[in-house]
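hi! just following up on the protien thing from before. the input was this:
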Amino acid sequence: MKKIPTFATNSPALTTTAFVLVLTAMLLPGLPVATFAVKGDTPLLSSRVNTEKRPLIIAHRGGAKEFTENTIDGFNRAMRLGADGNETDVRLTRDGVVVIYHDERVGRVEGLNNGRNGPLLSDTTYSELTAHTLTPVGEDSGGKRVPTLRQLLREVNSGLLNIEIKRGDRYDELVDKTIEELRGSPALSRVVLEPPDLPTAEKIRRALGANLRLHINPAYDNSVPFDEALKKVLAFKPHSISVSYRRLSWEIVDKAHEAGVEVWVWTVDQPEIGKAMALLGVDAIKTDLPTLMLREIPRTITK
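and the predicted 3d structure came back as:
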């Protein structure tokens, strides 16, 4: 039996024990009650839990709640903090430049009045896109502009690069250009590339080789139940799967690890949930708050 570490909670209505049990019950639907035992105020769990090491900490968009998202300075800051890598997104401008950008439309990160109703990024040239600076977040002093994938590969020189290919207009062209940018790049060995479907993953694997780390979210395939989508993805044997922490269960972790596939969860910004994910045995946690998660989730989960 392993003792669960104390989880902090801001809710005065919940004791630590009750909080952990409620949280775990939410995260683990169907988990037998007999798995748990309580001794005094200390919840206990079977030795199945991971108590050996902390998952990788991946800064989501470079740590979007601590610094301006998807910027070179933000990515490099996350690495200086001690993060194990960065998560980001790629899209294609009207003139064919692969850029680091999350939203389908332009305006939110620039602080423009159009908000999320701005022009499609795919209808915007790179010069039009970079005519605006990004609204600074956190310690950013401002003046940042949207970078390209090429800049990311050249200027972020350490850590894993979890790059999600976003669907949109001229999607096939985006995939082809992403492949060409990655081919021969010294950073390729650090890339964890996330296509939105298996056909694209198969195309990329043929183009860049079996050693490329591919990362797939089974939930993108909404044509079939999640369990069936998961089975198909695991049969493909990517490097890792991307799963919302709200969906995660021991069954998913077990199935993935039995297939030799890592489990990465998103987007975790609460330390108590991060610790629960660590206990479940996930391999990486994506977070907008890398400083907090690095501080609150120790390298060794329990002593």
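Residues 104 and 168 are 7 Å apart (CA to CA).
The first helix runs from residue 16 to 27.
cheers
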